[in-house]
Design brief:
Strand content: 15-25%
Structural class: alpha+beta
Mean pLDDT: 88
Largest sheet: 4 strands, antiparallel
Order of helices and strands: HHEEEEH
Strand order of the largest sheet: 1-2-3-4
Number of helices: 3
Number of strands: 4
Helix content: 40-55%
Shape: elongated
Distance between the termini: 96 Å
Length: 167
Amino acid sequence: MFRFKDFGIESDIVIVTLAVICVALVIMLVVLLVKISKLNTRYLLFMDGADGKSLEDTFHKKFQNMDYINDELNRLDEHMKRMDANLLRTYQKIGIVKYDAFKEIGGTLSFVLVLLTKEDNGFILNSMHSNAEGCYTYIKEVKGGEVFVALSEEERQALEEAKSQGR
């Protein structure tokens, strides 16, 4: 027969140790039962009024919806790329200077208008007004922010104003 005394162990200590282990196991069992109950409740809510076929239909509809959303995102992405490409060709920078072209004869009705793209390509429009002689309009091409003809002070000022908007 097996005795704990033969090994120098008191039987009271063994019984108390086993009782503590049993209490710990009962506590763990209660915790697991509560978790299983919660999981079962969630499962029943998920399956409420549904059989395997209706769940399959639900998943199929969700996947179709996701495919539609992905297609729309791709379409919008392509549209945005086209818009970005078109935006590079639009006039985004403006410079304007009003001045008196003929010193006290025309008033300050003359102006220089500069329109530039993001890459500083565009034109300079100079409209010179005179009460005596009418209005003269000139246009000069701008490539990369440079003009290859002589500029008046007003034209140079309007060009710098437009170029400074992109910095």
